[in-house]
């Protein structure tokens, strides 16, 4: 049987996840493997989320609440927004897909930055939408002026996606610069181009000049904010994220999302996690200590890196080891340490390292030190 496949589907390069621990154990016959590849919370899930899940286990013969009423009420109170401004997704990745599907057609375009989260381009291509990637300098920062020029010059642009801080680079756009960008964007074509501020890592931020995304959401009518429970809340396996947007946008996404798109366990875990401020504080502190641990070690090894506002750090493997990031990745795999090559982001010379526990970081640092001694 032959089926006609659209060219944009036929040529699609799918998202590549981090290498699993069990696969690495089988492949290299290793008992101990440390994964520092997928920006997961190394402390696990918070105690309140775990308790809520255990309590809900006996009722998993029932379908989840398709309206996510309780989680929306909790988020509404937490963020000071109406429940009608919230869309709950199977991770924030689903919200990206829903936005593009709802508000663009094949032939439209999105604007991203070089080195931006690859899910934006993947979700766009699935719907026949082209990604316009704006070049950036060696600092790997989003270039607002070039992005604005691209948007002004092309009436087909429907979105600009901006992760702040960005994954995998850890770089960010400061508040004054971002506010100026959004003000200019709002003046283009009546503010019809949506700015999607992806704030997956916002709880890890320490920089004083990195803006609160919700503050910008309230100020600009064409801003959508994406958030997730996968990172600092430690619920990556439950797949719960959400978007904050104007009610008229949210109503459209609610029409097209799949029913029961988030599991019942995911809903109760996320609701409980939202109230666990103590766990968030502990995870943030652990990340700060781990970041200092890695920065100190990298400086001692003379391995360049980009300062990060996330729970990961991007290193220049080519400059530090004389090897492409993929080769450093493979060498460390054999030592039982999983890092993340980022050639699919256009950064073959780099390697992303997630911040782990103190013990995990030590193992990762030891693997790099041993490699450094032999190159």
Record the SSE blueprint.
Blueprint: H1 7-10, H2 21-28, E1 34-35, H3 47-56, H4 69-79, E2 86-89, H5 92-103, E3 109-113, H6 119-126, E4 130-134, H7 144-152, E5 157-163, H8 175-186, E6 194-198, H9 213-219, E7 223-228, E8 241-244, H10 247-256, H11 264-274, H12 277-300, E9 305-306, E10 312-316, H13 317-321, H14 325-333, E11 337-338, E12 340-341, E13 350-354, H15 358-373
Parallel strand pairs: 1-11, 3-4, 3-5, 5-6, 6-7
Antiparallel strand pairs: 2-8, 7-8, 9-10, 10-13, 12-13
Helix pairs in contact: 3-11, 4-11, 5-6, 7-8
Pick out its properties:
375 residues; 4-stranded antiparallel sheet; globular; 7-stranded mixed sheet; alpha/beta; Aspartate Aminotransferase, domain 2; 15 helices; 14% strand; Aspartate Aminotransferase, domain 1
- Average of per-residue pLDDT values: 96
Count of helical stretches? 15
> Which range best describes the helical content: under 10%, 10-25%, 25-40%, 40-55%, 55-70% or over 70%?
40-55%
Helix and strand run? HHEHHEHEHEHEHEHEEHHHEEHHEEEH
Q: Please identify the top-level CATH class of the largest domain.
A: Alpha Beta
Structural class given helices, strands, pairing? alpha/beta
Q: Termini, distance in Å?
A: 52 Å
The Cα radius of gyration reads 21 Å
Instruction: Give me the count of strands.
Output: 13
Strand numbers in spatial order across the main sheet: 2-8-7-6-5-3-4
Largest sheet: 7 strands, mixed
Q: Examine the secondary-structure arrangement and name the CATH architecture of the largest domain.
A: 3-Layer(aba) Sandwich
Strand share of the residues? Answer: 5-15%
Low-confidence stretches are none
Number of domains: 2
Quick one: CATH superfamily of the largest domain?
A: Type I PLP-dependent aspartate aminotransferase-like (Major domain)
Shape: globular
CATH topology of the largest domain: Aspartate Aminotransferase, domain 2
């Amino acid at each position: 049987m032959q089926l006609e496949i659209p060219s944009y589907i036929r040529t699609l390069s799918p998202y590549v996840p981090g290498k699993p621990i069990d696969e690495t154990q089988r492949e290299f016959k290793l008992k101990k493997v440390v994964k520092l590849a997928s920006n997961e919370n190394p402390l696990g899930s918070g105690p309140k989320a775990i308790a809520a899940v255990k309590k809900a286990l006996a009722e998993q013969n029932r379908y989840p609440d398709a309206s996510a009423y309780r989680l929306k009420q909790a988020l509404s109170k937490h963020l000071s927004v109406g429940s009608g401004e919230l869309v709950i997704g199977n991770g924030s990745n689903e919200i990206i897909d829903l936005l593009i599907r709802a508000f663009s057609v094949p032939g439209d375009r999105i604007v991203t930055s070089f080195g931006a989260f690859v899910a934006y381009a993947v979700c766009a291509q699935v719907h026949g939408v082209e990604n316009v990637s704006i070049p950036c300098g060696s600092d790997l920062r989003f270039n607002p002026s070039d992005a604005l020029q691209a948007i002004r010059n092309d009436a087909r642009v429907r979105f600009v996606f901006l992760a702040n801080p960005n994954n995998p680079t850890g770089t960010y756009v400061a508040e004054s610069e971002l506010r100026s960008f959004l003000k200019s964007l709002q003046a283009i074509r009546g503010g019809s181009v949506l700015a999607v501020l992806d704030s997956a890592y916002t709880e890890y931020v320490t920089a004083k000049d990195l803006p609160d995304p919700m503050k910008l959401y309230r100020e600009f009518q064409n801003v959508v904010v994406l958030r997730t429970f996968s990172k600092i809340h430690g619920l990556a396996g439950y797949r719960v994220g959400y978007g904050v947007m104007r009610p008229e946008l949210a109503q459209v996404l609610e029409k097209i999302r799949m029913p029961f798109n988030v599991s019942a366990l995911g809903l109760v875990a996320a609701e409980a996690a939202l109230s666990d401020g103590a766990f968030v504080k502990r995870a943030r502190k652990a990340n700060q200590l781990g970041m200092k641990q890695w920065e100190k070690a990298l400086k001692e090894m003379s391995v360049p890196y980009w300062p990060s506002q996330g729970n990961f750090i991007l290193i220049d493997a080519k400059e530090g080891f004389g090897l492409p990031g993929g080769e450093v990745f493979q060498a460390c795999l054999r030592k039982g340490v999983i890092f993340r090559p980022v050639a699919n982001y256009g950064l073959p010379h780099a390697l992303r390292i997630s911040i782990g526990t103190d013990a995990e970081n030590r193992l990762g640092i030891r693997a790099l030190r041993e490699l450094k001694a032999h190159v």
